[in-house]
Amino acid sequence: MNIKKTSDFTWEIDREGNMNVPVKIYANQEIMSVMKNDRTLMQAENVAKLPSIVQNMIVMPDGHEGYGFPVGGVAAFDADNGIISPGAVGFDINCGVRLIKTNLSTEDIKPNINRLMDSLFKNVPSGVGSKIKLGFTKSDLEKIALEGVSYVVDKGYGVSQDLDRIEENGCINGADPDKVSELANERGKQQLGTLGAGNHFLEVQRVDRVINKDIADKFGLYENQIVVMLHSGSRGYGHQVCSDYLKILSDYQRKNNIALPDPELAYAFIGSKEAEEYQKAMFSAVNFAFANRQIMTNSIRKSFEQTFGKSSDALGMELLYDVAHNIAKIENHHVDGKDKNLVVHRKGATRAFGPGRQEVPKIYRSIGQPVIIPGSMGTASYVLVGRKEAMSETFGSSCHGSGRVMSRHQAIREISQERTLSTLKSKHIEIRVRDKKLISEEAEWAYKNVDNVVHSIEGAKISNIVAKMVPIGVTKG
Fold it and tell me: How far, in Å, CA of 296 to CA of 166, rounded?
């Protein structure tokens, strides 16, 4: 593998052998050294061998080994004769992040932090298999698959203004609940409004530093402001959709005598029955995940109302934005001198459209899309803004977090709960967790340094850093 350094923040693996495009990596020297320790770059080379891939296979600085396709990867395929791959989207379809603003300060929060965290922990169920009885039926799930956030807002979970601040306005067109299995529906029915486990979290954060005041003002962010970050996805519903279609596409490979560089990269050609049905089921899970985060937002607002005795309106609990980072979408991009429709797969990567794109909400269109980047437990998170350069460089994509450097099992073996809890205590961070294993699994040392990750993205001129947040309270599964 011949890795060439092309700038302080970019690297390239030349096209060789069966590769159809080069691999482009965004990372500083330190991150690149870490990335070489697992199968990330080998997996990226395998993706570069897939048919109809366009321009480059891209690896973001948070990139690490995943299921076939590296987490932190972006790949685009011709929308007319290309492919779609469940492994390039991931099991947690539309895992994503949203940021909720408040008009509270650190001084407002400090006397109430324990009561607030207890309320959030109670009102937003978390953990493996977590459920909540909100009375949703199969018919409701079908409508959520088709209508996304607007359906649950009509049911009282939020306000119509929220829709303007969600990617795809909270509903991607083209979903079909008939392509979702009964098992997926059963798994999802009582999981709407739940956080889940693993790296999913709910954090109360303080805006520690504003880096770009002009953009921060337009986003409504300022220093010492309290915000809430929510990271979750489509729960068992999306996981089952992915599992179901991996089996279907495995049969498709055999039936069509398709040789894969990795069996985990099973795909179907656009226009085939299998590709069409996976896309419709995947879009259903995308809309489920948007609705899931919306219902949790309603629970978060209620927790603040209970704690502070004011309405969420009076507390300024407005949504800044909601972004997906496990998804495949048809988008138009300028490639090789032409505008082309592409199927852009982002797995552990965030859309980061620059100014002027119609997909960006009107309130942000003149400045670019908000890009929300969570850190690991106990470390900083960031808000960035998309740049024009990203449109030609990365199909308008950015990183999605800090990226693992240890497997969960390794973290449990090597990082003691005591060390993590002691560090969180020294930083005055309240934690609520249902499974104590997560204290080690999600410790900051199991992840890359998020500061390095976002500065690599900014250094490569993909997105600009707007503000840095630090946690005050964390709830996990």
Answer: 14
